[in-house]
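Assess this one:
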Amino acid sequence: MTIGTKMHQTLATLESAAANMKSFALDTEDKTAKQMFAQYAQQLESICQGMSARCDYIEQQEPQYKVFNQAMQPQQQQQNNQQKNAVKTRLQ
């Protein structure tokens, strides 16, 4: 596993954690807990921004670390093909 892959996995995990904190803040009725979860979400979002900037920098400096784009290309092609097939089916 490359550093690029590890960094993107970490970023995805952090983004998921931030989303969970926002969800907890919305779900709780306790005002103190609501503020705490909202603050945690903001902190995680700040970390995500820094991590994302670092991923972008590394990908610019070392093109072989462009993990996200490489991983997405086959998925995007598959989705595009599925969409084209769905349109063809509707038109028939």
About this structure: Residues 3-67 form one domain.
